[in-house]
């Protein structure tokens, strides 16, 4: 067998009391795409940061191409032919592509010679790997897919033979992700070794040759991708059997709870994002809204939840109108039984520096239950938070911990617990499982189904088509601000994909 | 001809008052472009002025005075660096502390050493940087228009003034044409990008604050060893803060920084030249109003006329490796 491109032996790393990596052994064959999968916090990123010299391991050895290599800084990693594409791009936003690429590898103390060399080298790399990008474009003006390409070029420019990609598709649209995978295969064909870190099982199956699974800081298994299944990997990741398909019974919808009529919404630039949309959500059903991000779904649920003014239209909650174009505010709507799980939990749903128990009452903090005269009833708030922690299995089970210290999945559970526990009649949910681990996804999906079965009306938007298909009883597809179709839960991905791409809408217009 | 003379005098004064502003402004530019906010320009300038004047008074050498000024100023800059880069302290607090230390210690040490109420002894001409007459300044004086401009305006400033204005293209060149400049700009915007490229964030920022120290030291030297013949208590008189305003006004770019400093310098020169003189229509304007004019205009300009000034993105934030 050929020598391993990378071999890790007995890597250990602790941050304070937390052991992020324990006794990790890993071999990566040259010229392959090797996936590393695990839940958030399983230690994948830490391991790769050690390999890239960003952190130093407490114990253990690294071999690159069979040579024992000490990697004390990114410089050593670069010298050993290792390049990394970080989850959050390490780009200077107001520099040109070229400036970003040469940063740290300028060649000489004056820029003009280095820039000229970089320009021709970049041209060669672009030809070789078909990675088109304008070298003089300002990075912040490029779409994220192209910014990521700049990161890849940066690594290749430094002569990387081994490329590590940390959660590369988190910020990409499905089409951009597919393009990335084509690039990765091309790089592999050219003899590069690629390490792909992700928590998305589908990506592992789609693009890797081998896959290693991490759980709670340990390496639990390595498999040939062709010889494993999504179910096996999910079980290895979580440590127990995971239901990837949502189990649910027939919906038994009754009366209309939420009725949207001729709703139009503009965004802050004045562009019409929701254009004359009408639909109903009945008690006991989940209505999913599918669509490529940016087609008006976000503005739609913000208008319904009272966090964005609508232009025109009416929304009826239990038959009574909501003043969506005027005075409606989220507090009033909560009091009337409409709860809202916002899409962006970091900026809208939570105050990250707050303690968990404080976030678990935000928006409901004016309720008598949490008050003691004009003051907050700290005891009541904390015991209530502890109840929710237990019921929703929020980990770590510490209501005094800063919210920023919880993982994405647990943060989302904090928001869900807050919004669901006040027994709302209507639940509006945006991206419930974005950045959430497989195990927590299963839990959140079960909770949403349980809400439905209790006779609540649930309006769901998600960019994950799988999620829409497996949860919804009815699927509406939005394209360019309009609802372009309604389908049942048995609609195929291809059928919905065409609607989402506006194909039918365009044909009708012609 | 009188009118031309008046204009020339005014512009000549503008250049003289602009020099310390310009040096301090460029000093701030190096530091802030690297992501270290520096509200302590004032204090470093003052400490430099005191060290320069004291040394020049004792040794009789302007050059040794300059060396002392730069040394002390760089020392204060490194203190600021140590607090805000190594120990990740609050950069505003550290800068304010430096201003207080400089304001207090210069007076105390001045009194202790020279017993002249915080002043340093008056410097003799040899211990100062005097006006330099450029070649042909006298021969060209009679040539209409160009003659007076060359001999009055361009010629006849101290060495430090010429250095200050040469620092403008030099700083531009450093910032946009050298490896150091590229990295400096990068570390002020996204230090993580610099770190992952295998470059030390701390060392880069230390080099930037050293540049700041050198330039504020020069500014102090200009004040005490060139423009004036010795150190006077609080002689910087807020110039460090005006320089910061000019830096924002110039959006952290060297050439606009020069024009911003010249504008503020002009306002200052105008106020000095016309105080106590009756203006047509308005009549005699109170001295205090004339003196306040530069500051009032600073507020108006900064509030309304510069558009959005976007500081370096990582400015004011200590770099911590993320977990």
TrEMBL record, chain A:
InterPro entries, alphabetized: AAA+_ATPase (IPR003593), ABC_carbohydrate_import_ATPase (IPR050107), ABC_transporter-like_ATP-bd (IPR003439), ABC_transporter-like_CS (IPR017871), P-loop_NTPase (IPR027417)
Keyword Translocase found: yes
Bilayer topology: Peripheral membrane protein
Entries under CDD domains matching the protein: ABC_Carb_Monos_I, ABC_Carb_Monos_II
Residue intervals of the ABC transporter domain: 6-241, 258-505
Keywords carried by this UniProt record: ATP-binding, Cell membrane, Membrane, Nucleotide-binding, Repeat, Sugar transport, Translocase, Transport
A Pfam family this chain is assigned to: ABC_tran
Keyword Cell membrane carried by entry: yes
Subcellular localization, as worded in the UniProt entry: Cell membrane
PROSITE patterns for the chain: ABC_TRANSPORTER_1, ABC_TRANSPORTER_2
One annotated Gene Ontology cellular component of this protein: plasma membrane
UniProt GO molecular function: ATP binding; ATP hydrolysis activity
Family: Belongs to the ABC transporter superfamily.
Name of protein: ATP-binding cassette domain-containing protein
Lineage, highest ranks first: Bacteria, Pseudomonadati, Pseudomonadota, Alphaproteobacteria, Hyphomicrobiales
From TrEMBL, chain B:
GO terms, molecular function: transmembrane transporter activity
Keyword Membrane among record annotations: yes
Keyword Membrane: yes
Keyword field: Cell membrane, Membrane, Transmembrane, Transmembrane helix
Protein name: ABC transporter permease
Compartments where found: Cell membrane
UniProt membrane topology term: Multi-pass membrane protein
Predominant cellular place of this UniProt entry's protein: membrane
Gene Ontology CC annotations of this record: plasma membrane
Chain ranges passing through the membrane: 64-85, 92-114, 159-176, 206-225, 231-250, 257-282, 288-306
Lineage top rank: taxon: Bacteria
């Amino acid at each position: 067998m050929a020598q391993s491109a990378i071999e890790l032996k007995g890597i250990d790393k602790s941050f304070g009391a937390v052991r992020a990596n324990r006794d990790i052994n890993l071999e990566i064959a040259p010229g392959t795409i090797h996936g590393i999968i695990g839940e958030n916090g399983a230690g994948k990123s830490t391991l790769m940061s050690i390999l890239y010299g960003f952190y130093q391991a407490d114990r253990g050895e690294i071999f690159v191409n069979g040579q024992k290599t000490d990697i004390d800084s990114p410089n050593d990693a670069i010298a050993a032919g290792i390049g990394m594409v970080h989850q959050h791009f390490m780009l200077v936003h107001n520099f040109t592509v070229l400036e970003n690429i040469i940063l740290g590898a300028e060649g000489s103390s004056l820029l003009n010679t280095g820039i000229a060399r970089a320009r021709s080298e970049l041209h060669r790399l672009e030809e070789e790997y078909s990675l088109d990008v304008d070298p003089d474009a300002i990075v912040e003006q490029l779409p994220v897919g192209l910014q990521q390409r700049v990161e890849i070029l940066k690594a290749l420019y430094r002569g990387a033979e081994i490329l590590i990609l940390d959660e590369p598709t988190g910020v990409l649209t499905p089409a951009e992700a597919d393009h990335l995978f084509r690039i990765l295969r091309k790089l592999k064909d050219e003899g590069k070794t690629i390490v792909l870190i992700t928590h998305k099982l589908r990506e592992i199956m789609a693009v890797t040759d081998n896959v290693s699974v991490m759980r709670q800081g340990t390496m639990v298994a390595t498999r040939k991708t062709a010889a494993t299944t999504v179910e096996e990997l999910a079980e290895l990741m979580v440590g127990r059997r995971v239901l990837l398909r949502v189990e649910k019974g027939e919906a038994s919808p009754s009366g209309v709870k939420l009725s949207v009529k001729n709703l139009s919404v503009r965004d802050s630039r004045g562009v019409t994002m929701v254009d004359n949309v009408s639909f109903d959500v009945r008690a006991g059903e989940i209505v999913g809204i599918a669509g490529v991000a940016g087609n008006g779904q976000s503005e739609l649920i913000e208008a319904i939840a009272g966090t964005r003014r609508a232009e025109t239209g009416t929304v009826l909650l239990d038959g009574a109108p909501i003043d969506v174009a005027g005075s409606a505010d989220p507090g009033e709507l909560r009091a009337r039984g409409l709860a809202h799980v916002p899409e962006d939990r970091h900026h809208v749903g939570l105050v990250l520096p707050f303690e968990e128990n404080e976030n678990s009452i935000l928006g409901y903090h004016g309720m008598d239950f949490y008050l003691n005269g004009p003051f907050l009833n700290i005891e009541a708030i904390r015991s209530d938070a502890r109840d929710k922690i237990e019921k929703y299995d929020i980990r770590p089970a510490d209501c005094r911990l800063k919210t920023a210290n919880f993982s994405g999945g647990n943060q989302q559970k904090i928001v869900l617990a807050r919004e669901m526990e006040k027994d709302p009649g209507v639940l509006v949910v945006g991206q419930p499982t974005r950045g959430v681990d497989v195990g927590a996804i299963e839990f959140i999906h079960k909770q949403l189904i349980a809400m439905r079965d209790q006779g609540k009306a649930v309006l769901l938007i998600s960019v994950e088509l799988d999620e829409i298909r497996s949860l919804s009883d009815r699927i509406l597809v939005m394209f360019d601000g309009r609802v372009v179709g309604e389908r049942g839960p048995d609609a195929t991905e291809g059928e919905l994909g065409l609607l989402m791409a506006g194909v039918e809408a365009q044909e009708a217009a012609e | 001809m009188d009118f031309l003379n008046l204009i020339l005098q005014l512009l000549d004064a503008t250049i003289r008052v602009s020099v310390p502003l310009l040096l301090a402004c460029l000093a701030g530019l190096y530091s802030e472009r690297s992501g270290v906010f520096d509200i302590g320009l004032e204090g470093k300038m003052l400490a430099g002025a005191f060290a320069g004047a004291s040394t020049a008074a004792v040794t009789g050498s302007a050059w040794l005075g300059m060396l002392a000024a730069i040394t002390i100023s760089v020392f204060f800059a490194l203190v600021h660096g140590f607090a805000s880069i190594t120990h990740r302290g609050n950069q505003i607090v550290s800068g304010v502390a430096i201003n207080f230390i400089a304001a207090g210690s210069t007076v105390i040490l001045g009194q202790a050493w020279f017993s002249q109420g915080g002043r340093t002894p008056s410097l003799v001409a040899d211990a100062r940087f005097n006006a330099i007459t450029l070649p042909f300044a006298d021969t060209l004086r009679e040539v209409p228009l160009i003659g007076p401009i060359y001999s009055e305006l361009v010629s006849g400033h101290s060495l430090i003034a010429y250095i200050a204005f040469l620092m403008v293209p030099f700083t531009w060149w450093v910032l946009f044409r050298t490896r150091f400049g590229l990295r400096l700009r990068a570390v002020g915007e996204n230090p993580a990008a610099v770190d992952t490229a295998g470059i030390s964030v701390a060392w880069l920022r230390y080099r930037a604050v050293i540049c700041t120290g050198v330039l504020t030291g020069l500014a102090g030297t200009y004040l005490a060893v060139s423009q004036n013949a010795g150190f006077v208590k609080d002689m910087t008189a807020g110039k460090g803060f005006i320089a910061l305003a000019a830096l924002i006004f110039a959006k952290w770019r060297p050439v606009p920084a020069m024009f911003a400093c010249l504008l503020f310098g002009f306002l200052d020169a105008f106020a000095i030249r016309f105080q106590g003189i009756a203006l047509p229509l308005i009549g005699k304007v109170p001295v205090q109003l004339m003196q306040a004019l530069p500051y009032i205009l600073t507020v108006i300009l900064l509030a309304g006329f510069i558009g959005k000034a976007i500081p370096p993105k990582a400015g004011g934030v200590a770099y911590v490796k993320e977990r």
